[in-house]
Every structure is written in structure tokens, then in C-alpha cells.
Design a protein that fits this description.
Number of helices: 1
Helix content: under 10%
Number of strands: 8
Structural class: mainly beta
Order of helices and strands: EEEEHEEEE
Largest sheet: 8 strands, antiparallel
Amino acid sequence: MAVQSGKDLLIKIDQTGDGQFLTIAGLRATRISFNTESVDVTSLESQGGWRELLAGAGVKSASISGSGVFRDANTDERARQIFFDGEIPKFQMVIPSFGVIEGLFQITSIEYAGSHNDEASYEMSMSSAGPLIFTAL
């Protein structure tokens, strides 16, 4: 697989619930993380005292984060509204030459920052709130 440009890793939001996803404005850095809890089933009978884990068990989750330049675009405004209203809309994460992950996410934090001689910036984090769909590219 060829080297990919980081700017092509996109976080998109379904603005109105109609399935039309728009890239969140101003992002410079994006990240997605997949997690699963392990379920320890080790007992006195475990061979050699080695830990045993239960396959297919445990809670799965994903988190998305991004940071960038605050632009006050429609997508920024919508993200703020989602946060303050406690909505859980669909998001997409586009991973170039790999696939698209889509599902419900809750915006868990939005942070704004700025200094007197620099641009205003923001960071946001989202946590999965249901099953995710992966579509290979």
C-alpha cells in the first residue's frame, strides 16, 4: 500500500439526518481509535497459570478526535448544537485506501483555544454510541 496523505483522513457529520455527510470544517489533525474490553476467565485450572480471555466477549467502542482551525462554518455550528443538545447523530471517518467507518457518535468534548498573535483553534472528541459499519474502499 502506498503512503497516504494525512489530510485525506476525514471526519464527516450527517448534518440533517438525510445521509448526506459533510467534512467538519477546519480540521488539521484527525484520529480514530478502536477498543475492546477483555473478559478474564483465568482460573486455577488455567494451563501454566497463564491468563485466559473469553473470545468475542467484552464491550467494543471507538473514539474519534480532531483538531484544527476554528472557522465558524455550518459544520462547526452544527457540532456545537449537537453537543449542547446532547444529540447522537451519524458520523463517518474516511480512511484513505482502507475504508469508511460509519455509526452513531456522541460529541464528548469541544475545546476552543487562542492566543493574541495566533489563529483560534479547536479540538473535539466523539465516542461511539452503537454498532459501527465498515465499508472497504
